[in-house]
Description:
The structure holds two protein chains of two kinds. By secondary structure, chain A is mainly α. Chain A has helices spanning 2-14, 29-35, 53-63, 65-68, 93-96, 101-110, 121-134, and strands at 25-26, 50-51, 144-145, 160-162.
Amino acid sequence: xxxxxxxxxxxxxxxxxxxxxxxxxxxxxxxxxxxxxxxxxxxxxxxxxxxxxxxxxxxxxxxxxxxxxxxxxxxxxxxxxxxxxxxxxxxxxxxxxxxxxxxxxxxxxxxxxxxxxxxxxxxxxxxxxxxxxxxxxxxxxxxxxxxxxxxxxxxxxxxxxxxxxxxxxxxx
Amino acid sequence: xxxxxxxxxxxxxxxxxxxxxxxxxxxxxxxxxxxxxxxxxxxxxxxxxxxxxxxxxxxxxxxxxxxxxxxxxxxxxxxxxxxxxxxxxxxxxxxxxxxxxxxxxxxxxxxxxxxxxxxxxxxxxxxxxxxxxxxxxxxxxxxxxxxxxxxxxxxxxxxxxxxxxxxxxxxxxxxxxxxxxxxxxxxxxxxxxxxxxxxxxxxxxxxxxxxxxxxxxxxxxxxxxxxxxxxxxxxxxxxxxxxxxxxxxxxxxxxxxxxxxxxxxxxxxxxxxxxxxxxxxxxxxxxxxxxxxxxxxxxxxxxxxxxxxxxxxxxxxxxxxxxxxxxxxxxxxxxxxxxxxxxxxxxxxxxxxxxxxxxxxxxxxxxxxxxxxxxxxxxxxxxxxxxxxxxxxxxx
Lengths: 172, 396
């Protein structure tokens, strides 16, 4: 025990790590803001702007329908629309996604696939509203914005459980 | 393993080794190597033109040819690939990693800054959590579970970077964001970052390959591949997960009673016999059964092999050193009597977890179980004529 302690002391003395190395540089608020596009499920990080399903439908038809189908139900791969509780096997925003904020976040990051990052925040709000409406989650007339998106209740949310596998002699 | 050599490779090799030989319309046979001078030393090594291991690409991934490999290190050009928006080109001079959020000092690190910190190396696997295919008998280990590969990764420990920026004791999660066209993001518990997470910039002794995240990626030993965010540009410390698309719509799995399991990070123990396997041919007599076993939770404790369709099991020899969260080579010497039989392996890790059969997984998760974290025992059928076939089981 004492020998182990001594050895540790010696090793630590040979190779001390400073509490800070001083490498890298401070990030400015501007630099952070230009990169920081994350949104938490409570809505923190949502940009100003708003949109609705009617506007979203027009955008969807011109920018999304080619890959996701005219109404979001026509393709099996990356099908976007199926109302919670119906018999559709495909996992969609309506029957599988637990948070509405994720719809906004993902479209803004990655869609349209052939031109990612090309949409304005207003367009993303409208597309989000359109997809939430098509999935039977909100009313067709609802205006979606930074203040009310996080409050939209996603029906699949109650199905989620945290990983319960723990290793050891059991299969989960 | 095919012995067909692309004509161009062949011609090049032949031209170098035997300048004076007949290289014309007729295909030159290799000459007696003891009678002519060989090729001069070169700037880059190359594979023998007789060896043609290849990855197997689809639109979204490319698989490691496990059946063509020996030992445990995956040659970097055969490391599996999975991306959500292709492989970006990133200038290492312009590369920057921003760490901000619940920290005392938000900071930006260039690649050369990252390389000044203490460099840590470890050998470990990365496996995609969607790594199981089945359906027909003519499937190779590459097709069944080729989304696992192993490298020696070098980089800076996240604990070092977290100390540098002064992570708040209240921060419990961090977001890792890539700079690919999907700007892919995952939320990771800070505890994992502190335990053994790293920002890796090197793979098997050289800069990470673009397909593996050049110039820098997150590396979380033992955790599902997708969490090891490639081309990482930003880390944001937070007190909650962000619930990104990659941890809700994807990389979650349906289990019993319609429940959906989220944040299934650990890769459970698994093994696969890579020899003999489809499409190899074997002969009656001594066969050394070989394969790899691995666990995201720790070390492989043992691998058991059955040569009679699972009735009896024998411990295989594990190749030392057995490393934590690493592919481990196993071998089992066996005398085949030439009768049709089934061979299979199962891994046991140092938590006592035993690799399940597909049926055990279905029993635990239900018939609607999702496609992630499916790690069943893989069986091969040896037929009397020496052909080896995969034994697919019914699932859906």
